[in-house]
Amino acid sequence: MKLREYKAALVTLVILTGCHEAGAPPQASLHPALGKPWKGLDRWFYPEAKTEYSETGLAQIYTRPGNTPLPDGEVWSAAAMTGAHQTLQLPALVRVENLNNGRVVKIRLNDRGPRDGRRLLAVTPTVARILGMGKNPTPVRITLDPQQNAALGYDSAAIPDLGIAPPGRGTVTAQSLDGRDRQVFDADAGRIKARKTLSAGEALPPTYIQKPVYPFNYYVVLGSFYQHRVAARVATRCQALVTRDVGDGANPAWQVIDGPFPTVEKTDDAQSRAQKCGISNPRLLVR
């Protein structure tokens, strides 16, 4: 082979190899992950495996370099229906409801974050678009479905600590982002009932269901207490209110809250005040 022909063949091989690498991201090696306590920007987080979980808070959009390996063995993708949570086991399937517009999506949690303790959830740009989020933090409700996660084979009680350091019923309508695809299906029939229905690393569909929208306010929870006198002392010190918590007798019966607040900025200020008052982990409540 002549030198000129050899160089041309070599260049062609390099181009083809580069194209192959760009179109074939690293394969995920999925495994359950919990991880050790880790420090965010303003507080510590303590991962804990849960079988039931429902919480309100603020969601934000986040990005990573493409194909970044994640704690559960997946690789990050801006196009994936995935997100980051500070403490739940990974991976975990959750429903996320945008309280501003009633859109509900299903995503897989596979990363740790956000580092800002005033935020509850970080999602990919694709999830944000499907949910109708803007650039500002969005009020959401996150719900963990124990049946769906158990069907994937991730028993919360059996999830090991891998020492990973942080870096409705009835019919519903599912609609794609561009509005072309619209499906009506039975919510109960659509549940994941077996591992073969959806593997944990499989792509979730970029669709949402629509729920009614109700008015809400922002509050900051300073803590929950078994004894009223203890809650009263904290409320007095931090200029907050004591309310009756909804419990079953085994959970704390009194809650210390501050609010209501009309904007996210006001709640951020309230959380900062709570930390200055000695509350290490204040949290946002939307109701």
UniProtKB/TrEMBL annotation:
Residues 56-134 form the RlpA-like protein double-psi beta-barrel domain. It comes from the Bacteria. Pfam families: DPBB_1. This is RlpA-like protein double-psi beta-barrel domain-containing protein. It comes from Sorlinia euscelidii.
